[in-house]
Design goal:
Distance between the termini: 27 Å
Oligomer: single chain
Number of helices: 2
Radius of gyration: 13 Å
Strand content: 5-15%
Order of helices and strands: EHEH
């Protein structure tokens, strides 16, 4: 997630999982990109799961965009 992904084709997609890179040389993931994909998933009724912000200390950066957990899963 290094740039926005507008107009995703979510037809026949069961689940979207988003996470940032982790490790020593990570690149920043923009919060706006995460929230845009979440909105696209909501509009298409596709479960959205945000896994992590990542970075060099992923436990410190957490998994809560906007202070909320986005942990949707498909209903099989």
């Amino acid at each position: 997630m290094l740039s926005p992904l507008p107009n995703l084709n979510l037809n026949e997609i069961d689940w979207v999982i988003v996470r940032s890179e982790s490790g020593r040389k990570t690149r920043e993931m923009k919060k706006e990109c995460v929230l845009d994909i979440r909105e696209q998933c909501l509009a298409s009724n596709v479960p959205f799961f945000f896994k992590q912000w990542g970075g060099t200390n992923k436990k410190a950066t957490g998994v809560l965009p906007e202070g909320k957990a986005y942990d949707g899963v498909p209903a099989y």
